[in-house]
Amino acid sequence: MSVTDGFDPDGVKCVVWDLDGTLWDEIAVESATDDLPTPRPAALAAIDALAARGVLSSIASRSAPSVLDRLDAVPQVRARFLAPQVSWQDKSESLRRIAKDLGIAVDALVLVDDSPYERAEVEALLPGVRTLAPEDVPALLAAFEGREVTAESRERVRRYRTEETRRAEGERFEGSREEFLRWCDMRLTVGAATADEIPRALELAARTHRLNSSGLTPDRLRELASSDGHELYTARMTDRFGEYGIIGAALVDRTRRADGGAPATWSVPLLALSCRVAGRGAAAAFLFRLMERAREAGAEEFRVTLRPTDANLEMRILLRQAGLRRTDATATSTSTTAPAAAADSAVLGRTLQGDLPGSPVWLHVSDREDTEA
Question: Which residues make beta-bridge pairs with 58?
Fold first, then answer.
């Protein structure tokens, strides 16, 4: 039986590597010089192969913090790792800190460690984390074979490095959080998805959990997006540090009424956003702009399908703050092709009459002219 049986590659966002006995053969603190041990070529090749598929790498090593300082002196190796943790703390605590620094769920991590004890400690305290021995890495890589790699995936590692710069600037910034966000000059653009954006939308549906309204599967999303009356919207964001890329996707059911008129309701079977933009107002801005577009198109009501999970509390709070409440349409749909809410889902809705919520004041929101719906 393979160590990756039952393994879902779409759920993996970062592989965390031990150092001594895993990334290299020797024990770094026992070396006679300040030179780092030579990394295993196979380990570096695996890290690069994962990066090409949009999977981040980090470090969790129970060793002297000075080892990380020595690693900083070897940029060609250090550059491969984000949010590294080198200290004498428990490995499980290091993984929690890595997840927090990267803004991802702990369960999105995989640990590679040569020590059975360290793997057992993580398995006991973080049961959602898959742990592997170094000899299991080929099976890990094989699990990603044949899966589509989007342009966003190939850029993910670079964008997370940019995120480290943002975070460092935020820590140095002398002012309030809102003042810093204004200074970042964040700009969100919303439009109907182009053909080359659809793979990224499917990836968001599969990989996002914190800001995912319904967990609609990529296959079902693709099917619905190509059906009559449905449109897929995407959101892109930039700031003074660079591009975030496509950070949001929303499937909208705009099935027309029987008389051919504009639909009275815009229904959203899926709203999904990257966890990289959590806490910056992008999710709210995307949702609110969709509501505005619905009203501009003549709709009177706006609905979102919600499947509550342990992970998407942030999305549930957002929908409530936007004034959406459970409707009587829980098991109905505006279209014969749209999905009825599952037994563990609900449909939340609100009227589009009167005042609508406004986007955060620090975020500029506009429509993309080339994809105007």
Answer: 16
